[in-house]
Amino acid sequence: QKEVEQNSGPLSVPEGAIASLNCTYSDRGSQSFFWYRQYSGKSPELIMSIYSNGDKEDGRFTAQLNKASQYVSLLIRDSQPSDSATYLCAVSRGSTLGRLYFGRGTQLTVWP
Amino acid sequence: DTAVSQTPKYLVTQMGNDKSIKCEQNLGHDTMYWYKQDSKKFLKIMFSYNNKELIINETVPNRFSPKSPDKAHLNLHINSLELGDSAVYFCASSQSLAEETQYFGPGTRLLVL
User: What angle is formed at CA B101 by the lines to CA B95 and CA B106, rounded to 5 degrees?
Assistant: First the structure.
């Protein structure tokens, strides 16, 4: 079983819609969870981090964490074409400091 | 004022050659990392250093040798390059091992012919 799994997509939504990106992880001991955005040909850029169960909102982005279900998601409200990118979920176990496990990413396309 | 920089940006070379990639961060961070991203976008850690000390050494062929002359620099030397080494190599840094927010460099696109 892979450490971190994401639907590879592509996920296609119209401008103004809510994009929902999902991620599951295998290690129950995981403690920290991150969403990175990667535009084509660019480097990953951190957009959200979440550490406790529930929702965390930052502008149009909301991260949701459910440790019991080993599930983390990212919602993008009012999606814009500029949100078109690959979104990488990353998880830290905490037992190995500095080690992030990345999913393979979900490619999101927002069409005007 | 680039936070994490890498050179070169592109590297095209023949199989069997030896090449190096350099990384520098001006954030004052203690911890630096090398990642490999394959053609399917899978980002996998290779090495991490904390204050010049090797912390993480994943299952990477020993043709790959990292070197950290000081905590602001982490270089990657690759011997006897193979076709499968073609990928994008990202350097990253974080404030410390305990601080998990990592900042990525622009990447080095390596193509082995």
Answer: 90
Task: Measure the CA angle with vertex B6, ends B4 and B8; round to 5°.
Answer: 165
Chain B residues with CB-CB distance to A104 below 8 A: 40-42
At residue A20, what is the residue type? S
pLDDT, tens digit (0-9, with 9 covering 90-100), for B82-107: 999 999 999 999 998 877 789 999 99
Task: Please count the residues of chain A.
Answer: 112
- Candidates A17, A10, A13, A24; CA nearest to A60 is A17
Three-state secondary structure call for residue B83: helix
Which residue of A32, A88, A99 is in closest CB contact with B43?
Answer: A88
Q: Are B38 and B46 in contact (CB under 8 A)?
A: no
* A49 touching chain B per CB within 8 A: yes
Report the C-alpha dihedral over residues B16, B38, A94, A52, rounded to 10 degrees: 170
Beta strands in chain B (DSSP E): 4-7, 10-13, 19-25, 31-37, 43-50, 53-57, 64-70, 73-78, 87-94, 103-104, 108-112
Please report the pLDDT score of residue B2 as a whole number: 67
Q: What is the pLDDT of residues A76-94, one digit of tens each?
A: 999 999 999 999 999 988 6
Report chain A residues whose CB lies below 8 A from the CB of B43: 44, 88, 102, 105
How far apart CA A45 and CA A43 sit, in angstroms, is: 6
